[in-house]
Amino acid sequence: MKLGLDTESGRKVAIKIMSKNLDPETEKLVMTECEALIKLKGHDNILEILEQGKDMYESKGKSKEVSYIALELAQGGELFDYIACSGKFPEPLARYYFKQFMTGLSYVHDQGFTHRDLKPENLMLTADFTLKIADFGFAGPVDGRDGSGVCNTNLGTLNYMAPEIHLG
Predict the structure, then answer these.
(1) pTM for this model (two decimals)
(2) If both were cysteines, with which of 41, 65, 103, 163 could 20 make a disulfide (CB 3.0 to 4.6 Å apart)?
(3) 133: alpha, beta or left, given left = phi > 0 and alpha = psi -120 to 50?
């Protein structure tokens, strides 16, 4: 991630910069994330996609063509970092974030998506401490890709997966 500046609005943004020639599996994850974020745009608890595309990127005096995704900047960082530094939250604060998390997650499901990689590292905080669900690279349809209501692929972060997934 890089910090960028929207020159039209003066707003700071987060930019994911990727090689133009991604392997097919990574390209699929990037497209999945963009499609999900576009369809989920406008909810207070979902990190907003601002732009996607290809452009020239200059680093250390060299230019190369890259793919990029410009996202709303969550200046507060990851919820994980707050938990790691402060330990458990007092109940009122935990309720505050849990309500925002459930509101955002309910919206994701109502729009027909499942996130498939929920963890504190993918819950971001804005400068005013609003929780934002991020990283929709593993998102999929709630009904499964074949419409059966089952997600057949094991995606996500091992330590955060449900026990039944580990048990097969």
Answers:
(1) 0.84
(2) 65
(3) beta
